[in-house]
Write a structure and sequence with these properties.
This protein is an alpha+beta fold. It has 4 helices and 12 strands. Strands 1, 2, 3, 4, 5, 6, 7, 8, 9, 10, 11 and 12 form a 12-stranded antiparallel sheet that branches. A hairpin with a 5-residue loop joins strand 7 and strand 8. Helix 1 runs antiparallel to helix 2. The protein is globular and about 50 Å long. The N terminus and C terminus are likely disordered.
Length: about 325
């Protein structure tokens, strides 16, 4: 039977040589050496499969380690690497685009759906609130949102009025416009893909806080090619703290944008999760807002007279 490994071969050679000298004492030294040579050749031939197997089992070149997903959080101290463009140039580019979107946004109608969910301890949904609105415009150009149908609710713990939800959208949509840049500390954090779009990441922190004007405090993702904001994550703050209705705790929102007409990036999906203190328990809750059906309004002069605005009531057009 052929040896199974290199160790078997070495042991076999050692004992075979010793046995040849002990078993054949009458042979001359030359004859013994010739016999040893023949035995060595035979053993080498017998051990060649074991040698080949050992080579097959030897470790080969190490594969490079897999890339690890990097999850960035607010407050990163140092950027991962310098951006390909100077940060000042990137900020100037995307802030100018934000100004364009701010001016173009009131020219478009849209449909907005709001969903608020409560969750049981096992993670299942225990109730939800659903409301759908459609943006409209009066003949004098004022934008308002009208409910398509009455809100539906099966919530068991949350108590709020529909207008409380609308208060979540009375903060500015576009934070870092050219007129607001100097009011922020903007720090480059690194790069990341957002839906296959290569992005620069900036952290935005307000330098000072005011009572009447909320400021964005969070992260901004900027398309590397076109210098357009495609995603944000953060909250709005004043000198009184985070901005949110008293009856709803939502403040940190992750918001994605959608390209409209190949020119503008408007919010299309926003989501926040929090804990509501209700009765004798803490209830996990989530809000999801979707904007869709973006369409240009007809010229204001030809727009039909619409009903009085329902949300919000102010002289300025509401922020969508």
């Amino acid at each position: 039977m052929a040896p199974q490994n290199i160790a078997d071969c070495s042991v076999g050679m050692r004992y075979t040589f010793r046995g040849s000298q002990a078993a054949l004492p009458g042979l001359s030294r030359i004859e013994i050496m010739d016999m040893k040579l023949r035995i060595l050749i035979a053993l080498i031939l017998a051990c060649s499969p074991a040698l080949a197997s050992a080579q097959d089992q030897a470790p080969g070149p190490l594969a490079p380690p897999p890339e690890h997903a990097v999850h960035r959080v607010m407050g990163v101290a140092q950027p991962e690497a310098p951006p390909s463009l100077p940060p000042v140039q990137i900020i100037k580019g995307f802030s100018q685009k934000e100004d364009e979107y701010l001016a173009a946004r009131p020219q478009y109608s849209y449909r907005k759906s709001i969903r608020i969910q409560e969750f049981a301890p096992d993670g299942s949904s225990s109730g939800e609130y659903l409301a759908t609105y459609e943006a409209a415009r009066t003949s004098d150009g004022r934008i308002y949102e009208r409910a398509i149908e009455a809100p539906k609710s099966s919530l068991q713990y949350l108590q709020f009025e529909p207008d409380d939800v609308q208060q979540l959208f009375r903060t500015p949509v576009y934070a870092v416009t050219p007129g607001q840049v100097l009011k922020y500390n903007l720090q480059f954090l690194g790069t990341e893909k957002v839906d296959e779009v290569d992005c620069y990441i900036f952290q935005a922190n307000p330098k000072t806080l005011e009572r009447q004007h909320p400021y964005f405090d969070g992260i901004i993702w900027v398309d590397q090619k076109y210098l357009e904001v495609v995603k944000t994550y953060g909250k709005w703050v004043t000198d009184l703290g985070e901005v949110h209705p008293a009856s709803l705790p939502f403040s940190m929102f992750e918001t994605y944008r959608e390209n409209v007409d190949g020119k503008y990036w408007f919010p299309s999906y926003s989501r926040s999760e929090d804990i509501a203190k209700a009765q004798d328990r803490n209830v996990p809750i989530r809000i999801t807002i979707k904007w869709s059906n973006f369409k240009l309004f007809p010229p204001a002069s030809s727009a039909a007279q619409g009903p009085a605005p329902v949300t919000p009531s102010s002289k300025e057009p509401p922020k969508p």
